[in-house]
Amino acid sequence: MNAGTERKDGARPSHPLRIEGEMTIYQAAELKPMLAAALQQSEALEIDLSAVGEIDTAGVQLLIAAKKSAHAAGKELHLVAHSDAVVEAFELLDLGGYFGDPLVMAPQAAASSSN
Questions:
Q1: Are residues 84 and 105 in contact, defined by beta-carbon separation less than 8 angstroms?
Q2: Average confidence (pLDDT) over 58-84
Q3: Strand pairing category for 44-55 and 76-80
Q4: pTM, two decimal places
Q5: What residues make up the domain containing 31?
Q6: Could you tell me the CATH number of the domain that includes residue 88?
């Protein structure tokens, strides 16, 4: 699991926060403070989920908690470029509307699902 963001001014991300690998119970302890720090440093945060290969309910809970924290702080949080795994989890749990972002699949995910 890797995550990173590039910042021009230290306050707002110049690129979305990109999460790579798994978002499961095994990575939750590592991901939680990283998501909190990224949100604290930004008024508007985009989380790129295109490289998430697996997500379970612990990963979904982290995203829900991040969305709630952003809302409570008056900040914006957007999820972008959903991988197949993320789309499948959101559809299974009927969470697409909760996050308020369109479920846009990453280019490689969209290509593989059209075959």
A1: yes
A2: 94
A3: parallel
A4: 0.78
A5: 25-99
A6: 3.30.750.24
